[in-house]
Amino acid sequence: MPFSSPIRAIVFDLDGTLVDSALDFDAMRLEMGLSHNQPILEAIEALADHDAARCREILHRHEFEGGQRAVLMPGVPEFLAVVRRLGLHTAVWTRNSRAVALATLARTGLEFEVVVARDDAPAKPDPTALVDLAGRWDLKPAELLMVGDWVFDIEAGRNAGARTALYTAGAAVHDCEGHELADWHFASFHDVEALLNRMGYGECRQ
Ligand SMILES: [Mg+2]
Asked: What are the tens digits of pLDDT across the range 58-111?
């Protein structure tokens, strides 16, 4: 069912959601010597200086290369065009670096009111950035929708009191970490009508 008050702003994750940058987090962990499934940013923070610097170099190389090959996820420009016609605010919030995020957005031709990277705010799942965006737009957190492809996106949204949508990119829902926490999930940005309905704009047409 749609929510009682419509969504007024959408905050998107970047890698794996708006763009496919083919980031291989398992390969990064292997190269860094981290254990399977360890969140990379948090693991690096816990390392001694020398090791942390080595791992940051590995991370930056992977992220930079990802930005170079990033391509838009199907349907993203069309969905964003509809969102903008509705007058919704939009932002990107990524655990990637600001430099790589801006280069990726420029490369794929995407523009947002606000870009929040790990340089700018505590990383997801900390909700601070979402709460700050709600304040900036004079909205209640529940009027924000957090869209992402990973459990930290969904946890960040929930921690802020925002709505959450998990993008599965067509994968089996139960294989997507965070599916049980999300308010809903969707397989394609081409499903505009279903997405608008969920966002409280059921009566709208493209
Ligand atoms: Mg992602």
From this structure: 999 999 998 899 999 999 999 999 999 999 999 999 999 999 999 999 999 999
Ligand 1 centroid to Cα of residue 93, in Å, is: 10
What residue ranges define each of the domains in the chain, with the CATH number in brackets?
A: 9-20+71-198 (3.40.50.1000), 25-69 (no CATH)
What residues does 144 pair with on adjacent strands? 9
Instruction: Say how many Å lie between the CA of residue 204 and the centre of ligand 1.
Output: 29
Helix locations, the chain, DSSP H? 25-32, 40-45, 49-69, 76-85, 98-108, 128-136, 151-160, 192-198
Find the 34 Cα to ligand 1 centroid distance in Å: 19
**pTM for this predicted structure:** 0.91
10-38, pLDDT tens digit by residue? 999 999 999 999 888 899 999 999 988 88
What is the widest separation between alpha-carbon atoms in the chain? 57
